[in-house]
Every structure is written in C-alpha cells, then in structure tokens.
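Design review, sub-item: ligand-bound model
Attendees: FS, YL, KQ
YL presented the inputs for the manganese (II) ion complex:
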Amino acid sequence: MNSLKHYEVWFITGSQHLYGDQVLRNVAAHAEEIAKSFDSNSLIPVTIKYKAVVKTPEEILTVFRQANNEVNCIGLVLWMHTFSPAKMWINSLKILSKPFVHLHTQYNAEIPWSEIDMDFMNENQSAHGDREFGFMVSRMRKRRKVIVGHWNDQQTILQLANWTRVAAGWHAFQHTRVARIGDNMREVAVTEGDKVEAQIQWGLSVNGYGVGDLVKFVNEVSDQDTAKLVKEYNDTYEVSASVKSSQSLKDAARIELGLRAFMNNGNFQAFTDTFENLHGLKQLPGIASQRLMQNGFGFGAEGDWKTAALLRAVKVMDQGLAGGSSFMEDYTYNFQNGSSTVLGAHMLEICPSIANGKPRCEVHPLSIGGKEDPARLVFDVDSGPAINVSLIDLGNRFRLLVNEVEAVKPEHDLPKLPVARVLWKPYPDLNRAAQAWILAGGAHHTVFSKAITTQFIEDFADMAGIELVIIDKDTTMREFNEKLKWNEVYYHIFQHRA
Ligand code: MN
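KQ shared the predicted structure:
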C-alpha cells in the first residue's frame, strides 16, 4: 500500500481586517510555523499544507471551494488566531464537503507576564476567537472534531495525527469499489443490507460478479508465475515437506494471482466471496484472501460487503502503525468464572498482519462447501489491547459497534485447529459484552484491530454520520439499554447524511 503522504490536510487560519497589517503579518507567520511543524512531524502521516490567512467571507469561500475540488485534500484544520466574526464563515461552512478539525490552540504557550500589553492581547485571542467560531459550527449543526491544546504538546499532535488517519480512511471509504464475488451466503441476514443507501450516504459502491468472472482471470495465470508465487510461499512461511510442492498449493497460488488480476482490472479495493458460490474454482480462496488483506484490500466472507468496506477504511487508517487489522468472527467461547474468553477465527480468512511470528502455510479439508482442500496461513496473535468493530444495517440507519477487548495468550496449545486464531477477553466481561452486542444487533463478523483504538472509530462515525455504540470497561447494561432507546428517537429526528 502507498503511504498517506499524498493526502493533504489544509491548515486554514481565520482572522479579520481590524488589527492592522503588522498583526496580520504576525498571524500569518505563526500559522505557517505551526502548519510546517505539523507537516514535518513524523507522527502525522499526511501532508499538512499551509494556506493563507483568511480575513473576509470571500477569501473563506474561495479556499473552501478549492478544498472541495482538490481530490487529494481529505480535510481541513481550522483555527482562529484572532477573532474572526463567524457570520463570515456561514456561506463557506454551508458548502464544505470535507471533514474538519477545529484546532483550539494558541501560538504562545504561556502568558509573558511582565511584557503583556494590549498589542499582545489583540494578537493572541484564540481563547475567545475560537469560541465565536465554535458557536457558529454548533448553531449550524455541523459535525467536526475539536482538539484543544498547545500545538507543540504531544497529546495535541497525536490527536491530530490520528484524526488525519481517520480522514484518509473516510476518504478511501467514499471511493471504495467493492466486488461481491458470488452473492450472499444463503439465508444469512446480517451480511445483507441496503447497498443503494450505503452509496447515497458514503459514496462507496458494491456490485456483484459471477464466480466465472474471477475464474477467467485464474485460468489465465501462467505456470511460470504460479511457480514463482509457490516459491514465495515456501520462502515466507513455514511449509511442511508434503505441502511444499503439492497441487493444492499450486492451485492456491493460481487463485491468488487470478484474484489480484481481477481486483486490479476492475479497480476494486475490497471484495467478498462465499463458499457456496465457487463454481469453477478448485478451492475457497484462503491464503489468497489473507494475503490480499495484508496488502490493504478489504475483505468480507459470505458476501459481507459492509465488513469488507469497513476493513478497507481501517487498512488505510492503520498504515505504518504496529498491530495489524483483520476480518474476524466470534467463533467459540471459553466460559470460565471471571475470565471468560472468546476464540476468534474464521474458516480461513484472517489477515497475517496480526500474526505473532512466522505463519505456517497448511492444507486441510474445509468440511463444508464440497471443494478441494484449501491452503491457508495458520498463526496465533500476540496479547494486548484490541477492538472489534461491526457495521450493521438497521433498516432506517446504519450502526457501528465497538467492543474493546484484551487479546490474551491461550493457556493451552491448539494442535488440531487448522486456522489462524486469537483469544480475547471482552470488556467489561464476556457475559455483559455479548449481552450488549446482541441487544445492539452486532454482527458475528467484525473488523478486529490491534492497530487503531476506539477513538479512531468515534472520529470515523462522526465524519460519516453513522450511529456508534461502544461497549467498554465502563459499560453497564442499564445505561446501555437506555442509550439504544434514546438513539432510536435521535435518529428518527435527525436524518444523518454525510
Ligand atoms: Mn463467517
């Protein structure tokens, strides 16, 4: 995957013509210094671009129109160094189609006690200038993130850095083309949903393809390229002697190359398949789906286009961060007083970005679907904090759910389990987490991430206008149930559109 540096976040500072040229020159110099310091900070993965200070409604409108039209501009940072009367911003805020951060900062960290005079007071007014601006944004019911802190403070920088990651994910989400190869697993409900509404709200598109469309690409793969990829498998993973040169591994490599060609040819960033629609394919794509996820493609099994699109967005957000993110399914429980855990896995398709150590490449029967034995990567996942995220369609709206979990080391080996797996302890505990998850309608499929935190999904939900419910250490069932009821009313009143 490419880095995020080609994405731009524009740094726009508001002021007005009331303080004279010297103050405006200082304001511009300060703003440029701050923008450049963000841009050169390695925590911030995107380009932060300084834009000239805006002093009039016309200047604001001009730069907002440019931001709307610049395809690489994924968002704005807005800051009122001085007072900037907010009626000047109304017409611009009305047309802005990019997300923004309201950065509530101040050029100087501390008050120069012995020097401070009215010139200083005129120049350093963000404490009240940003409140005037904030009023208007709230008055217009515009969604935005407010970050408060000195611009040199690590917490401020980290919040901004993470927000730019989310903005990049949101940008990618809006342009995601999902290929639904085969349709949905028969009779399954939660993986379905309103694809037209999803496109209206988020811009992403989901279109169906016959398995034959993929098979055509698989059949065109050369023996030479197949042999090269088999060698790569053998060099990269632990492969037993019987699997190394097996027909199964060759078939799997051919499927991976065909799938990559299919995805590139159609300019798709995410895909789904299902074990029930595999006519013409020898195996369910296992190692192929796993390795495509690792390269940043979104994936959802059994036709799950919502999880596929969500994983794509998360894969854009988490570039360069430690931990990894994967398609996941709550598979089976270990009930144990006080420390119950969930074993997460799938039939095959878990992303090796979350693997602890070198994955093993194995071939085993799938036991459903009636196809040949598929190759897959088998591995464990290191302990540590993680989140499970689900995106569902409630009929009148979409809902995001987050459950904060702690991945834990299994106390026992799993010598007969032929799939990648992770064991986690959900917060507040398994009983309440699963109770809340089920009451909120959360899916069995999720995006599991050790790379991003709940805050990323909070920012994402806000940008996209999606309802979000969170299950964490502080969740109590009584409050959670009330929240679900209040949300029914809230989303009945407010039609959220991105
Ligand atoms: Mn599944």
